[in-house]
């Protein structure tokens, strides 16, 4: 089974905006894909549906073989915590917490026992190249390093899917390239990765592009 399958998905928001229209998308295990399109084309809406943060107005969304409309909110939260990692443009790190604590906090709902969280967080930080930044707090880190902490947090629980929404949007080009290299490495090690971007150069550097416009995959 594919890790992600959207079939005939339409999403309308209260107020009447239809953000997605009849979208089909199938993503296999181990893919690395770019969802690319201009602002307002429906990329974030699609990521929210794939991330199980929202439900479609019509059509079906399957994640890991589960029809998300058929799961209770509780089971949907469990699926999200264990199987999906999120990375955002603005990092979303807790300001007063060091790198280990930020990553460890991300494991709270994944089923990893408390006694193991700091050790797993440390392993994830070493994996993203931050073994010498474990006790640094976000304000002591560069933008690229902050995003690496966020990536470590997203993958520490070994999710099936990593969803990255404009992960290089707040970084200079060198730091952005470093983060993209990191996402490629994680994908090569087996994680399915979806990157949202409006940057055609970044999209073109990935093996598969899903171009969007006006709520449709084109
Ligand atoms: P993108 O990520 O490509 O910029 P979005 O999915 O954010 O696109 O937005 C698609 C359309 O849906 C836009 O017209 C946007 O204004 C609208 N939209 C997005 N989120 C909401 C929301 N929560 N409520 C109402 N309209 C929304
Ligand atoms: P139960 O826990 O008894 O199965 P739920 O209230 O969790 O019942 O869900 C009943 C049905 O409503 C399910 O099919 C579920 O997919 C759907 N459902 C639950 N919450 C939402 C929601 N926020 N939006 C759309 N459908 C929902």
TrEMBL record:
Gene3D superfamilies, per this entry?
P-loop containing nucleotide triphosphate hydrolases
InterPro entries registered for this protein in UniProt:
AAA+_ATPase, ABC_transporter-like_ATP-bd, ABC_transporter-like_CS, ABC_transpr_LolD-like, MacB-like_ATP-bd, P-loop_NTPase
Q: Does the keyword Heme apply?
A: no
Q: Which Pfam families match?
A: ABC_tran
Thylakoid: present as a keyword of the record?
A: no
Task: Give the ABC transporter domain ranges.
Answer: 4-218
Give UniProt keywords alphabetically.
ATP-binding, Nucleotide-binding, Transport
* One example GO MF annotation: transmembrane transporter activity
One GO CC annotation = plasma membrane
Name of protein? Putative ABC transport system ATP-binding protein
Taxonomic lineage of the native organism: Bacteria, Bacillati, Actinomycetota, Actinomycetes, Micromonosporales
